Amino acid sequence: QVHMVESGGGSVQAGGSLRLSCATSTYTYNMAWFRQAPGKEREGVAAITGGGTTYYADSVKGRFTISQDNSKNTLYLQMDSLKPEDTAMYYCAAAARLLWVGSILRPQDYDYWGQGTPVTVSS
């Protein structure tokens, strides 16, 4: 079992920045950030492998950065140049097995989830 707790969400104006953190009890093969806006499906935002390779959704490329600090068992999501359409509940997640590239941003392939942290971006 992997326990995950997100923090760092909040309200910010468009163009601003936030850094989300996810404290985990352990690292797994793949870890990722997802988000879900009201009335929409959960979508993958960014993922990172144990070797440090990163993947991003097209909508956040160049604006968001995923990273991990192994010494602190913490996953991060630095979000810059935020837009109103980034407003959502953000979740960190971990997969219990190695994922192939085609599924690395699919929520159904992740096994453990945090409770979420809200992000609101106003225009």
**Beginning-to-end CA distance, first to last residue:** 40 Å
Give the overall pLDDT as a whole number: 94
Order of helices and strands: EEEEEEEEEEE
Q: What is the radius of gyration computed over CA atoms, rounded to a whole number of angstroms? A: 13 Å
Helix-strand category: mainly beta
Per DSSP, the total helix count is: 0
Could you give the count of β-strands?
Answer: 11
Largest sheet: 7 strands, mixed
Are there runs of 5+ residues with pLDDT below 50, and where? none
Strand coverage percent: over 45%
Helix content: under 10%
**Overall geometry:** globular
What report would you give on this structure?
- The chain is mainly β and 123 residues long.
- It has no helices and eleven strands.
- The strands form two sheets. Strands 2, 4, 5, 6, 9, 10 and 11 form a seven-stranded mixed beta sheet that branches.
- A hairpin with a 6-residue loop joins strand 4 and strand 5 (43-49).
- The radius of gyration is 13 Å and the shape is globular.
- The N and C termini lie far apart (40 Å).
- The model has no long low-confidence stretch (mean pLDDT 94).
